[in-house]
Amino acid sequence: xxxxxxxxxxxxxxxxxxxxxxxxxxxxxxxxxxxxxxxxxxxxxxxxxxxxxxxxxxxxxxxxxxxxxxxxxxxxxxxxxxxxxxxxxxxxxxxxxxxx
Amino acid sequence: xxxxxxxxxxxxxxxxxxxxxxxxxxxxxxxxxxxxxxxxxxxxxxxxxxxxxxxxxxxxxxxxxxxxxxxxxxxxxxxxxxxxxxxxxxxxxxxxxxxx
Amino acid sequence: xxxxxxxxxxxxxxxxxxxxxxxxxxxxxxxxxxxxxxxxxxxxxxxxxxxxxxxxxxxxxxxxxxxxxxxxxxxxxxxxxxxxxxxxxxxxxxxxxxxx
Amino acid sequence: xxxxxxxxxxxxxxxxxxxxxxxxxxxxxxxxxxxxxxxxxxxxxxxxxxxxxxxxxxxxxxxxxxxxxxxxxxxxxxxxxxxxxxxxxxxxxxxxxxxx
Amino acid sequence: xxxxxxxxxxxxxxxxxxxxxxxxxxxxxxxxxxxxxxxxxxxxxxxxxxxxxxxxxxxxxxxxxxxxxxxxxxxxxxxxxxxxxxxxxxxxxxxxxxxx
Lengths: 100, 100, 100, 100, 100
Hints:
The structure is a homopentamer. Chain A is mainly β. Chain A has a single domain (2-93), classed as CATH 2.40.50.220. Chain A contains no helices and 9 strands. The first copy, chain A, has strands at 2-11, 14-15, 24-33, 38-41, 46-50, 59-64, 81-86, 89-92, 95-99. In chain A, the strands form 2 sheets. Chain A has a 5-stranded mixed barrel with strand order 1-3-5-7-6. In chain A, strands 8-9 form a two-stranded antiparallel sheet. In chain A, 57% of the residues are buried. The mean pLDDT of chain A is 97. Chain A binds chain D through residues 1-3, 30-32, 34, 40, 51-53, 61, 63-72, 74, 82, 84-93, 97, and chain D through 7-16, 18-19, 24, 26, 28, 43-48, 56-57, 65-66, 68-69, 76-81. β2 of chain A pairs antiparallel with β7 of chain B, so a sheet runs across the interface.
């Protein structure tokens, strides 16, 4: 899994039937800079199915690949990226990188 | 999943039997620049099976890996990349990155 | 899937039993430069099982991951990369990138 | 699999039910510099489920993808990254890169 | 699959039960430089299960992902990287890149 920021959303009307009703969010993966206790942006973008009620600006945990189909929201769907949690805090041994 | 632009198509006569009749499009993944509200090109290329009737120049949503076999078009085929939706709009909190 | 050039082959005598008799080719993934109508080399190398009778110098279509096991040649084998087609042509809206 | 350093942890209250009770650690993949007998940091971050009782600062072995679901801790869960061992030593032909 | 050099080994006592008895080698992926007929190092490191009796310094063929579980040594284990062959030779159309 990786840590990401929700940066927006995607609207698609014309899509495969199994995707009907899914909420699609744009996410940007973040790296943890242990020394500076900050997140480093990656500039990359993915589209993830939301299974936990996440919103724009929130820091979330994302699962990729076949494991992204292991939620009730995504089972048997052509989904390779899913938000599985909203992050409360990210901690390093001597401090806090993020707190909601 | 990721956002991509359809940039062309591939023709192959000599191929594995399960691929007969599939429409093969070339796609370029795009990143979302949240601050500038633009797409950033990646310069990368994939070949994706089209399952939604997409055409050159359109902005689409693409699924990779084993999840790419979870559509009626691609079931049981040696396919690791499929177009699952044509994107209407991509939105960030304070604006619009793309509208069809 | 991606487009690749066959650049060579690999010979291995000592290998897992399920790989006996497979033809192993070296491939280099190519990117499509839509503006210039050319292929851009990536400098990367993979070893792929050939399931369509490809040869050195040919431009082929390659599938990766678990989907690489979805051909008669690779079923149940420890194979994560397979050539599934020999490409006849690659086309962009206003021209041809490649023709066999 | 790859070698990684545990750099911190993630706390998430709001998450998919199957993730309840899992310990989530932040890891940074390391590369082995054979000539210098050192680890090279990669600056990348993943979130991994801990299945072996690892702690901050430890050097661990990490499995990704569908294989990350092949432990008792992660079976059937939307998990694509798991710590499967705590590393005692990393050795190259003429020396030691790491010893716990 | 990809071509790699065995650069070392990993020792782990504290690990998931299914990994007991597996031989863990460190590998560095190599790229084939077709023009120069040489290998180019990538500087990346993975840990692979050995299923063919490989040793330090040898040039091997490596499978990743779920396909890495398709050998007798790795079946049902949390393994995403396995050595499936020891390479005898790597050949390009007008020469030899490597011979054991």
